[in-house]
Amino acid sequence: MRSVVLSIFANEKIIRCTMIIFRNLVVAFLISFLQLPVSEVSAQKGYPENAFISPVDIPIYLSGSFAELRANHFHSGIDIKTQGAEGKNIFACADGYVSRIRISPYGFGKAVYVVHPNGFSTVYAHLRNFSPEIDKWAKSEQYRLQKFDVDLFPSAGLLKVKQGQVIGFSGNSGSSQGPHLHFEIRDSRTEEPIDPLLFGIAIKDFTRPTINGLRIYPANDESRVNGSNKPFEPELKGWGALYQLKSTDTIEVAGDFYLGLDAHDLMNDSGNKNGVNLFQVFADSVLQFHWEANKFNFNETRYINSFIDYATYHRNGKRYMLTRKAPQNKLSMYHSIVNDGVISTLPGKTMQILIRVADGKQNESMLNFYIKGVKKAAPVSPASVGAQIFSYRNINQFRTAHINISLPGKCLYEDTPFEYSAEASQPWSCSMIHKIHNPEVPLHDYFEVSIRIDSSCKIPVSKLMMVRLNKNNKPVYIGGEPDGNFLKARIREFGRYALMADSISPVIKAVNISNGKNIRNQETIRMTISDNLSGIKTYNAYLNGKWILMDYDAKNNLLEYQYDEMLLAGKNEFKLEITDNAGNKSSYKATLNY
Q: 222 to each of 141, 214, 342, 351, 551, how far by Cα in Å?
């Protein structure tokens, strides 16, 4: 008897080992079958590989990849490291002409746009400064408009460039968090950004993406994952080409489910965690889901909030890419999707799930596991039974004595049970505090909210503004305008809102000047400006009564004037005036010797 039992155990072990070997062979075959050389990918997409040279003369290492997942948007280019320094030469990648010069304290900072005769345009952003010819024309326009923040469109052919010509110098301007070059290639006709790697921009990358986490979501109230109606997040093991579940290779699912994946990409000789460009899911070798980021339109970039598990991102900053496509998600990067990315199970049937992710150089990684279908359980009653349903198809209205909400359906990605509550006003507020739905639910567009001003509020309406209270209960300026006894504003996030006043003037501090100082031994005048709530709206500086150009670095609250012909020998009367968004003003005056 003992020998018979041992024989059975031995046979079962052989069978299990054989099954594991067979499964691994299937996965290995799929990996081999699905691989596609980069040259073939570029050729299939129809993008010329030799049309553009590198915009830098140093080896390219990326701190950001194309379509990388960012806050409320997909990254529209590649971020090229500049060895931690500013002032590197930036070259025109092909012949063409400067079509646009954008200068802003936010966003791209100082940026140059070049149109090329081959139907594509290139963008070079976060520059420290432009080449002398471009800089001279841009500054003349800034002085003409008496504005630092400008969006300029020189006539075609006015500022011609040749391939390899220096058009600017790398920097850290705008919303950049460190010296680098943001580089884009766009379709000149549609303005759609395209992955520059498809044009043969050379980078050293033989490193496969890293799969960090998997989530399996019950698709409806009747679905269960391992017996629960909540998302299940199994531990993973593996590295390189193949990942697996750590404790078991099979998950039990009743009903329908969809998947979420957290992954990043690494390059050779670089520690930056960049995004992946391809996400596919196969069920029993049949393609169920295919997202691929080769290009997109700026009008659709906010669909990222429906592409990811927004609630998890809001809670802990992790971005899980979802297979489920919401009804109002119109993202063009979905190349193939079956049943809106939801997969069905049958009791007693086991299916193989294979997830494939790849980077812009087609280095790829796989995650392989199994889903076993089990019998459905009784449905879970939704927590929001009886709530007003906000439709993604129609205009939605919600009104009380203290708040009016008008929300077009296009703001939502799907029908949503709407939640609302209110708290009593606080000593710092001029209204009740209104909790408008749940901040873990994303919005695609703005909607209108009007909040009643407390009758006890004696502050002038011109000083009132709507604010959103963030996770730390700190007010974030929204703005608004009077609407009878209400203040009306447009918002694009759910959360807690209230009215409050800003009657405090902005703060000006001199960094390297003082009244009566001789400034001959320095090359700039530097000032810092800040505001406690509504933010800086305007800033204007003058020398001897004439407007002068001061660069505004908003992230460092810094204004800087680089000496030019406006500074005269002898005494100069310097004046700086700033206004915040509530109309509060401050000024600074000094006599400077030069």
A: 63, 21, 14, 20, 59
Q: In this predicted structure, what is the pLDDT of residue 36? A: 42
**Mean pLDDT computed over 152-156:** 97
**Cα dihedral: 393, 394, 399, 402 (round 10):** 70
Query: What DSSP string runs through 370-425?
Result: EEEEE---PPPPPTTTTPPEEPSSS-EEEE-SSEEEEE-GGG-SS-EE--EEEE--
∠ Cα 548 568 127 (to 5°) = 40
Instruction: Tell which residue, 62, 85, 94, 76, has the closest CA to residue 170.
Output: 85
Regarding beta strands 447-452 and 403-407, do their DSSP bridges make them parallel or antiparallel, or are they unpaired? antiparallel
- CA–CA separation, 261 vs 341, rounded Å? 13
Distance CA 540, CA 518 (A): 22
CA 377 to chain centre: 39
* pLDDT value at 205 more than 50: yes
CA–CA dist 403, 15 (Å, integer) = 67
- Tens of pLDDT along 101-135? 999 999 999 999 999 999 999 999 999 999 999 99
Decide if 385 contacts 432 (C-beta within 8 A).
no
The token duo for 324 is 């489920």
Whose tokens are 């009215």? That residue is 499
Give me the pLDDT at residue 21, please.
42
pLDDT at residue 46, rounded to an integer = 77
Using CA atoms, how far residue 433 sits from 407, 423, 498, 503, in Å, is: 19, 5, 5, 20
Separation between Cα atoms, residue 134 and residue 89, nearest integer Å: 14
